[in-house]
Amino acid sequence: MAAPVKLDHRSTGYSLERAYWLALASALAYKDEAAVEAQAREWGFETVRHHETRFTPPFPLQDTQAYTMASHDMIVTAFRGTEPQQIKDWLSDATTPPRRGPADIGYVHYGFGEALESIWPDVKNTHAELRTNGQTVWFTGHSLGGALAMLAGARMYLEDPRLAADGVYTYGQPRTCDSTLAKAYNKGFRNRMYRFVNNNDIVPQMPPAPAYSHVEALRYIDSHGKVRDAMPVVGGLLDRAAGLTADPLAPASDGVRDHFMHSYLTALEKNLT
Predict the structure, then answer these.
(1) Mean pLDDT of 183-191
(2) Binning pLDDT at 50, 70 and 90, where does residue 209 land?
(3) Is the dihedral of CA 131, 20, 140, 26 positive or negative?
(4) Whole domain around residue 103: which residue ranges?
(5) Per-residue DSSP letters for 130-177?
């Protein structure tokens, strides 16, 4: 799918066009290396690096995957997500304690912390190698990838504020950290973090609060596919109910259906047109 707008490597700040394009970049993380490199070149990125590692605790053997693409003006790292059932297994695992957060601030879900730790040195070194022109830096990801993108932004900022990313856009991100880290993140990433949630997407509702919290800057996609800057409590409940009843033959599947990356892309594209 081609973006309906030309990608501006020099622009900053929030826009629906950027949200849509970074959603495409998140979707591309599910593709193989050749597909990533071909698309990156079409988008105007001269250099691509692939990141992949394996880790085990406390889940069955998993891959953590991401890619970084760089141009003269912009660097983007997109983290790969996982299937809804797999991430539900991750989020329901309560056998391990949480992990200390970046710069020892608060704590994060153990699985997410370990997954990022396994790949972060390579991502960090790649940014140090490729950021030779003061390029803007962006992290993005869907599902598990969204959690890793948020934590990557947190690590970069909290461990060295001079390296703060210019933007973090996530799609279907689960709750990732406690309220202490969320507050520190919200302060550092005001007007730079945007967390998209599609109606009844089940993954952002896990792990349960208050043990885990969401970062701010919600962009809620309602049952009609419209992107809203917030989700009113009463109106949001009614809208979620509308989404559940949209498919009378399979209302329980709505939370999984709304989580798929193509559902986010479809909604964002609709808002652009």
Answers:
(1) 92
(2) confident
(3) negative
(4) 16-272
(5) H--S--EEEEEEETHHHHHHHHHHHHHHHH-GGG--SEEEEESPPP-B
